[in-house]
């Protein structure tokens, strides 16, 4: 059992020690005093010892009374109720003076009796202080027993309650883990669906415009000082559609435009829209690319023309595909039109002129305006030949040119993929969904 000694005032213990030493010092001094009265004087060395012990005994007694004030009344009673105390003090003063006198055994015996009486009274004070200490120890023991009983009760309670708490905590942890797994799975599914929706959105709008539209809910129209616009059209599409079923027409257009979409991803261009058999692409917007837009569109147009020669109608493999293309460079305004099904549209004379370059062109040839020719001549990378003056509806007579090819080898581009009816953006999404570990369908055992 642990005894808390802090409940016993330390001053009691220190006071008890000082009082014990005080009685001891006074006893030694009394022996030297008896020697003085028996001989009539003290040797200098004994005299010094007497004074030092008397002073030390008085100081220790005073210190005890300061530490334990409850002992002061007892000490006062000793001084007031003992006539011998005053007589003894006078004799002590005679010893301190150490004046030679004739020795007296009877006086020495009397001094001894008086000193012994005083020491007995001091021992009574010491006994009282011992009682104080004993009471403190007993209180500490009682507190220790109470603490021991409380600790034992707490220990028993903990032993009884711990299994219940452990079971509850384990159940809570299991519930949290199940919830966390479900939440993680839902988060993966949500991330996959977000990627799916973003991918679909980026097919309809430019990525930069779509992000701005999601953040601010509005995208103001923007003016572009110089862009290059490309139009293409399938020659004889009306005749092809007349001899084909609607499903065959859709499959045919989808296979052609899928090939075009895969090819244009290698260039800094943006596909604006497809209307029937018309294919429209622009460069220099919505992200400006300096003076590169003309060369990007020209390179793309040559590659699309080459890819067209490889195409065959799935239901009429013996019939070749012919395409007519036109390009023009100039300013335009672009912005989001509509809220129900928003589209990124271009407006301006540049778009009309590019469309006229296509409609007045010839099969399997790329007609360009004089503005495009000047932009391409600055690079020295392309071969153009003059077509002459062409009467363009709404523009009058215009000097146009044919884009024949590139100077030197063409840049290495990916080969054409096999024709099928799956849109390219859906193929990418499905491929990503199958390969990504973030989305796995739930499989439950019934």
Summarize the structure.
With about 450 residues, the protein is of the alpha+beta class. It is built from twelve helices and ten strands. Mean pLDDT is about 80; it is low at about 1-5, about 415-425 and about 435-445.
How would you describe this protein?
- It is built from 12 helices and 10 strands.
- Helix 4 crosses helix 5.
- Strands 1, 2, 3, 6, 7, 8, 9 and 10 form an 8-stranded mixed β-sheet that branches. It has a two-stranded antiparallel ribbon with strand order 4-5.
- The longest helix has 100 residues.
- The protein has 446 residues and is α+β, with helices and mostly antiparallel strands.
Task: Give a topology summary.
Layout: H1 10-39, H2 44-67, H3 72-81, H4 83-97, H5 105-204, H6 207-216, E1 222-234, H7 237-242, H8 246-264, E2 270-275, E3 278-283, H9 293-308, E4 312-313, E5 316-320, E6 323-337, E7 343-347, H10 349-359, E8 365-369, H11 370-379, E9 382-392, E10 396-406, H12 424-435
Parallel strand pairs: 6-8
Antiparallel strand pairs: 1-3, 1-6, 2-3, 4-5, 6-7, 8-10, 9-10
Helix pairs in contact: 1-2, 1-5, 4-5, 5-12, 8-9
Shape: rod-shaped
> Class by helix and strand content?
alpha+beta
Report the major sheet.
8 strands, mixed
Radius of gyration in whole Å, from Cα? 57 Å
The averaged pLDDT comes out at: 82
- Which range does the strand content fall in? 15-25%
Distance from first to last alpha carbon:
63 Å
Number of strands: 10
Helix content: 55-70%
The helix/strand order is: HHHHHHEHHEEHEEEEHEHEEH
Unreliable stretches = 1-7, 414-426, 436-446
Discrete helix count: 12
